Amino acid sequence: MRILQALLDILRTEKEYPASFSALQAEAGADVSSQFSYHLDELTGHFLKHTNEGYAFRYAGWKVATAILAGIYNQRDEFAATSIAGTCPRCETDALEATYQDEWMEIDCRACETRLTRYPFPPGGLAGRSPSEFLHTFDQHVRTHMRLAREGVCPACFGPMKPFVERNDSDTTASRDAGYKCTRCGNRLYPSIGMLLLNEKPVREFLRNRELPVDVAPFWEIGFCVDDRCTVVTCKDPWRCEVQVAADSDTLILELNEHLKVISTSILDNSAI
């Protein structure tokens, strides 16, 4: 681990890279050359490559080193419920609070007692950042995972991810009836259906035309991303649901099928009702 971290330090501080044997030994703080050489040889091939220029990362070695830097394996951090800036999309109050515990970030509204989001987040994402900076990082972290899943890529192992629907006869709420599952590692994502539509062209165009681009606010302040009332199952067999995206006096209605594909869109002018 020290060797991998040493090579990453050389890379990120723009020292001579690929690194020579002596430079890498010095950066790792290894006193005994023979012992250092043994461990370096064990890494070379799968984690590192050795060329005439020196030692450099293979993808596996870089991935391990950056995962350690992210704190995934070797750090713990937490903070109790803390007030944050922003407006709850359900009750429109500024009573949001964030909690970080056991590597999970949770954002709730104290006023209406609604959990807006809960998602795993590596502790390295908090290091050296102000509250607004790590909240922005968390926002981008979740958006990226949703975008990957939507494209059929598991954000954990990069295996194939497939949509699924669990038909629930007890109610018409779709927020936990559907999601994505990795066929390789079994990773499951249960986002709100609206969260999956952040990058859909009809949604982005609808909001952009009303000067409300989806990238302005964090996703937990966007109603259709976190409010279950915006998503309704309209048919059980075949499974269909509708997501409502409201802006100004208009509402964009998107219909999705059992493959979580948008099959129709329409715009409702609420001012005419």
TrEMBL record:
<dbReference type="InterPro" id="IPR055771">
    <property type="entry name" value="DUF7347"/>
</dbReference>
<dbReference type="Pfam" id="PF24042">
    <property type="entry name" value="DUF7351"/>
</dbReference>
<dbReference type="InterPro" id="IPR055775">
    <property type="entry name" value="DUF7351"/>
</dbReference>
<feature type="domain" description="DUF7347">
    <location>
        <begin position="2"/>
        <end position="68"/>
    </location>
</feature>
<feature type="domain" description="DUF7351">
    <location>
        <begin position="86"/>
        <end position="262"/>
    </location>
</feature>
<dbReference type="Pfam" id="PF24038">
    <property type="entry name" value="DUF7347"/>
</dbReference>
<protein>
    <recommendedName>
        <fullName>ArsR family transcriptional regulator</fullName>
    </recommendedName>
</protein>
